[in-house]
Amino acid sequence: MNRPWTADLGNGTYRNPVLNADWSDPDVVRVGADHYLTASSFGRAPGLPLLHSRDLVNWTLVGHALDRVEPAADFARPRHDAGVWAPSLRHHAGRFWIFWGDPDHGVQQINAEHIEGPWSAPHLLKPGRGYIDACPLWDEETGEAYLVHAWAKSRSGIKNRLTGHRMSADGRALLDGGRTLIDADRIPGWFTLEGPKLHRHDGYFWIFAPAGGVETGWQGAFRSRDFSGPYEERVVLSQGRTDVNGPHQGGWVRTAAGEDWFLHFQARGAYGRVVHLQPMRWDAEGWPVIGDEGEPVSTHRKPAAPEQPVAAPAVDDDFPGGAHGKQWQWTANPCADAWTEQSEHAVDGLRLTCLRTSDAHDLRRLPNVLVQRMPAEEFTVEVDLELHSDEPGAKAGLAVLGDAFCWIGLEAGADGTPRLVHRYAEGAAESERDAAGARASPGGRARLRIEVTAGARCRFSADTGDGFRPSGQVFAATPWRWVAALLGLFATAPAGTGPVGTALFTTFRATH
């Protein structure tokens, strides 16, 4: 297969997407020569991923800003349509700041002196339902601070509107009741205005905001001499003659070399919202021009920046000392006993507890599924599994998880003997079904494999000691409403009492 997806072409140019995975609703900030990016994480934990790059093309995942999603009790089970929506990342007064809107609880804020943390506990700045996509602005000239946010119609009955507030300099209080800055119902042809990013440039207040819907929308820019408006508007990026549907919602950044660039997403079904990088300039009237005269570029020269090694967020994991890498998240706030930590001298491998649950028949309901993004359009992923349980019904496996799901792994039979099983559930189904007949797994070991081809079509196979053998039919991965299909590792057992054993995962590998 070809080399892992990298955006850097090695000749001074790059190709889009620069992040070929589900880094939804990206925002970016520069501090010195470094660029940092965060993205929506919804109900997964840890939340608020933090990525680093020197050149906006080669990115690495350096951690997460949110250990648990708050209020913690509300995210004890998977909630892929709630939690952290469209965060904004800023640097002010020597600190990093992240603001986001939780559609069920309100606008929240955290901050830290260093990107690695420690980050402050979430502060609920504006409580209420329907407040989403929050972004702050500190006006360095006047010392004033502001906040803008959008609205979720599913919670408030309001959409297509941006609301602004004056804010205290410490980001902990709003100083007025808010006012409508932009009502896009009054702009012919505009709908679903959301995701605002607030800036000060050339004497104007600027709001970069997408509209038109995730799959088909465009990027708008609004400007006004006064924060309260009125605002002029212009479409500054759209699909045009390209095959990049709905190019919008992201962040503008000016590099240390003085160049302007714009990062945005493209919705690609089961693969999620992949991230593109566009050049940006200002026209004679002072408006931003993004991409190739307002259309996305597929390749372009790299930003002027010091050379950086070719890089992409990690996928592979040897689970050194029993710990998983930063690329993994739980589908909800994790249970304290979901995995067993090993000493630094232990054999590498991730040991998951076979947690007892009445929801073992439906992976979509489980908080203890460890997931990561699909890393490319076409790839193969493999992992070694040992099931250390003879409790009938105890099981563990490798999954593709979305509105529908499919997994292959090991299960203890009625007599406690481990066997290879392959199961799936359609989007409307409430319980999984067999995708292929079970077969013996000597020693309770198997090497599991999923081959993903164009269209997120997944072929499952396993090696239980006699070579890889295909299993079942091809499974077409599906996203959740806002979240891409995810790769997952899990271990469960039937409801009951008492410990029932563990599953050991080792040597997780993805090839392209």
Helix content: under 10%
> What does the average pLDDT come to?
95
SS field, number of helical segments: 1
Amount of beta strand: over 45%
Q: Radius of gyration, rounded?
A: 23 Å
Question: How many β-strands, per DSSP?
Answer: 37
Question: Could you characterize what this model shows?
Answer:
Strands 23, 26, 27, 29, 30, 31, 32 and 36 form an 8-stranded mixed sheet that branches. Strands 24-25-37-28-33-34-35 form a 7-stranded antiparallel sheet, with no helix packed on it. The chain has a 4-stranded antiparallel sheet with strand order 2-3-4-5, with no helix packed on it. The protein folds into 2 domains: 11-299, Glycosyl hydrolase domain, family 43 (Tachylectin-2, Chain A), CATH 2.115.10.20; 318-509, Jelly Rolls (Sandwich), CATH 2.60.120. It has 512 residues and is an all-beta fold. The N and C termini lie close together (5 Å). The chain is globular and about 75 Å long. It has 1 helix and 37 strands. The relative contact order is 0.13. β2 and β3 (34-38) form a beta hairpin. Helix content is 1%, strand content 46%.
